[in-house]
What we know:
alpha/beta, 7-stranded mixed β-sheet, globular, disordered C terminus
Amino acid sequence: MAKMIVVEERNSPLLLVLPHSGQRIPRELERRMTATGRLQTDLSWHMDQVADFAAELDITVLRTSTSRLVIDVDRDPVREADGQPSDPAVALCPLTTLDGKRVYQADEDPGPVEIDERRRLFHEPFHTALGLQIERLKRMNKQVVLFNVQSMRSRIKARFAGELPMVNLGTCQGRSCHEDVSSIVASLERDFPGGGISENDITTGGFIAQMVGQPRDGVHAITLVLAQRAYIRHETPPFEMDKERLRQTRAALRRVSSDLIDWAKGAQKAPPRTLLEPLPDFLSV
């Protein structure tokens, strides 16, 4: 049986978290799902393979083998006290896909008792493991950076108009990490010319970043959501990867990860960012 939580312990100041790459659904639960639910179109497909450079850079990796349809470890469990949110983007146990299609057959939706059980079995152990890794890395490094990497289909009509920007950052409105960290990750934009970038829009950071990001204490958390066209040929099951796009995206993520490590060690400054276009001449007075 696959491990529910997978930890690859290493010693650099970077912790790579992959909360949505798991595909495992317990058999008894899978039988209750619709055909659409079983397709699991909302996963960060193959992200563990995209980030398989971690060992080369001495990066600790934390991921779960469990599907986000069972429980989303990057969502706030306290929300469930007031009932299951209807928005699948923030639900602990989504009832629909991101484009609004039902995950479960009629009368098979999980209720409060089942959701609480999933929280205890899956969500709590993941966050316990996360806390242990952060404490371990803090003992060895003055600054620690948590890099939460996800991906999403490029077109989801129910979520956003048109095409998802290639690079989407979440920093809890600048509260979960030093601005240098966001500058380094934002430099990914140059690796995807014309792909677009958003910050605190498509994602604002998620529950993990909210709970962990404490820049004043030396723990910086940033979330990256890549559009899946960055490395996937066809964004439909079985989500086949494009070898050339995969090579380019892996190289880009490796570069950024290396830069984050150097920054945390104090060996590198962040690249400058142009936050606003220059003022027109008649306004620049």
